[in-house]
Amino acid sequence: MAKKKEITPIINENIEHESLDSIMGERFGIYAKYVIQDRAIPDARDGLKPVQRRIIYSMYLNGNTSEKPTRKCAKIVGDVMGKLHPHGDSSIYGALVRMSQDWVMNMPLIDFQGNNGSIDNDGPAAYRYTEARLSKFANNLISDLNKDTVEMTLNYDDSEEEPVVLPSRYPNLYVNGSEGIAVAIATEIPPHNLKEIIEATIYRIKNPHCSCDDLLNIVKGPDFPTGGYIYESEGLKDIYRTGRGKIEIASKVEIIEGKDTNTLLITEIPYKVVKKDLVYSIAKLSKSKDIDGIIDVNDNTAGDGINITVELKKEVNPEIVLTYLYNKTQLKVNYSANVVAISHDRPKTLTLTSYLDTYIEHQVDVITRRSKFLLNNAKNRLHIVEGLIKAIDIIDEVVHTIRHSKDKKDAKENLKTKYGFSEEQSEAIVMMPLYRLTNTDINTYINERDSLKKQIIDLEEILQNDKKLKSIIIKDLKEISDTYGIPRRTIIKEKEEEITLDKRDLVAKEDVYVALTKEGYIKRSSFKSYKSSNGSLPGIKEGDTLIMEDIANTIDYILAFTNKGNYLLIPVHEIQEGKRKDEGKHINYLVTLPIDEYIIKAIVIKDFDKDVSIVMISKNNYVKKTKLKDFFTTRCTKPITCMKISKDDEMVDVSVSNGNSNLFITTSIGISTLFNENEIDNIGLRSLGVKAVSTTKNSKLISLITFRNDEKNKFLFITDKGAVRIIDPSKYEITKRLGKTQRAFESFKSDQHYLVYSTKILNSKDPLKLQLLMSDNSIIEAEINDFKLTPEKNCKNNLEIPTNLKISNVYIHEVQKIDKDTIVEEAKTSIDNSNDSGNVNNINSSQDTKEEDFKDYEQISIFDEMGD
């Protein structure tokens, strides 16, 4: 017969329905409370997180103290993890190592043997290699721990007891500081000077109603183990007044002046700054285009403190470089303090006064518990001693009674019955060896009895007299301060006046050659490279032409203008150095230049404070003037508008005016106008300007020359077919803007010439070298030897060029500069309305004409100078 299947009875399940959000909220709250109270936030009373407290207690229990040899960290970690801290070994070992690091802790609590990491953020050696023990200073945390000074609680598996808090005979929370991130809460407590904090604690004990400001006369501020400087600020005071505050920590740097170089010697760095990262950031800056004065950065740090050297060029101001490094690296950092600790079983933001009150309250409790413990022991011992004295008085009877008793229990009962001894006294008598009982001098016990009575009186007084109790705390604190106190490492000083940084101050001043081409290729080369080239023109790309090539200083700027009505501002020190014969590098690595945009002019600027203006013209007959200072910008990464022009227009020329300059504007077919710059107002960068020439006969503006009334320059004009004309501008009439036009040159329609270049030239014995870019992109070098005036207006082909080619561009080694020698004049009108002609003045009419002024001039016909 088949066996019947067993039927499993149905169990009625009790299922409770609950929403996920309520479960998550409740469970996360439990988790958050655990992390805050049992992991990340220190207790205000002893300044320790649970893992730190458990490490110290475990080492204390195992006798791994300062007077004993060190033990393997693997054993220490294992003991802590197995008995007290049910978490990963890495967190335990990390906490153990941190308590030994003298660049983290003001007063290290662990003596470490082996590699415990470094200020370079190197990790420690594995715990199987290292050893540790409690430091001598850590004894002050565990002092009297065996005298019931603190509450004990069961460990995670109820197999061991551990202290809820350590006695901590000094204010460890402030002395060593702490940091931690919990759930929705974090703490960042800076370390302080032991002497100052103890002195403030004593002051608070004596003056319980003192203000925070009173305590700030003692506690100057945080005292970091890495030293450095802290600047006085409201943020510094807020740390103690509110528990939260922000301060600046600066490195200690000494400037050492040498014969050929200067050196910044860094001997202290801000707290928690990784040294190797700091060195790397300075070295990286030295290679950037922002600073040109750092020669080398070296980390010479050994075992005797920080030693970082930054070698500077002699030409660079070390104070400026230091200020720059303070601003750009972790040589100076902001530190935000957030004094959060567990106080009365909950996290609180503590002010200085509330923290000291919490700590003093803890010490009162420790001394009270210790006194009660000692009092109880003293009373118990006194009772025993009094019994021993009584026993010695009747020693023969006592010995006889013990000998004739059956066993220990019978002996105790007989002593109690016959002589009136108590249970404790009887126990002490029977447990004492007979030879001691019979040979001990009664005076020894009498002295001990008297001593115990005095001790009991003292302990009772401590418990009954609050003043006496606090005097014990003060005495212990002073002892610790005298034994372990050290001078302040971090100096508090007034905030220094901010130095306004000009990037050029960070650059070694050096004259260099700068070359810039029409297509935007730029380079700088040294004098050595220039000399080796024997004065030949710098290398350029085929089809390109030079716009400028001249000496500039590394602290100068190149103000370059483009055909699209934009400008570029380029610091010379940011231009990459190259060989003179090289083509250079496209300007896009400094400023993004669109493909259809090219350079038309460049000016070397040394001083933007000069009260001069930039005059610009466009081919469609517009002129505008803008103050030089408007062109300054701290950073130029793309072209910036300086003349708002239409799509079919282009900016064609730019020049500098000094406040009372004359403007000589010429079109492509030689039509010219001459008027004073004050005919037009200075306007903003994004404006278009005003009409320049009254009639252009459908030609386009090509050139602009600015000059002063007292200049004796000649003007040079070059056409596309190689015609050269030299004129004297003083023979031209100054009119109003849009006034009568004049001719710079003329040509027949059958042989039309178009202007490609014009400039001012000086009388010189040296030939004027030209670089002609031809229509086939070839370059022809030419020169002008004769600088006499050209009476003929009609163009003649003076330059030898192939008949099938035309000149498309000309380069002459001449660059406008704005520097200390730039002449600035007051704005004056040069139009004399009282003149009979109504609108004409001669430039030199107010000056005496001297014969030598015309010694290089040829006689010309008056008709050559007449307008159309």
UniProtKB/TrEMBL annotation:
An MF annotation (GO) of this entry: ATP binding
Location of region: Disordered: 829-858
Keywords assigned: Cell membrane, Coiled coil, DNA-binding, Isomerase, Membrane, Topoisomerase
PROSITE patterns xref list: TOPO_IIA (PS52040)
SMART domains: TOP4c
One Gene Ontology cellular component annotation held by this UniProt entry: chromosome
Reactions performed catalytically: ATP-dependent breakage, passage and rejoining of double-stranded DNA
Compositional bias per record (Low complexity), positions renumbered to this chain: 830-846
EC number(s) recorded for this UniProt protein: 5.6.2.2
Gene Ontology biological process terms from the UniProt entry: DNA topological change
Pfam families per the UniProt record, alphabetical: DNA_gyraseA_C, DNA_topoisoIV
Active site per the UniProt annotation: Y129
Coiled-coil intervals: 442-469
Occurrences of domain Topo IIA-type catalytic (ranges): 41-506
Entries under InterPro entries matching the protein: GyrA/parC_rep, Gyrase/topoIV_suA_C, Topo_IIA-like_dom_sf, Topo_IIA_A/C_ab, Topo_IIA_A_a_sf, Topo_IIA_dom_A, TopoIV_A_Gpos, Type_II_DNA_Topoisomerases
Bias (Basic and acidic residues): 848-858
Protein name: DNA topoisomerase (ATP-hydrolyzing)
The species this protein was found in: Candidatus Onthovivens merdipullorum
Lineage, broadest ranks: Bacteria, Bacillati, Bacillota, Bacilli, Bacillales
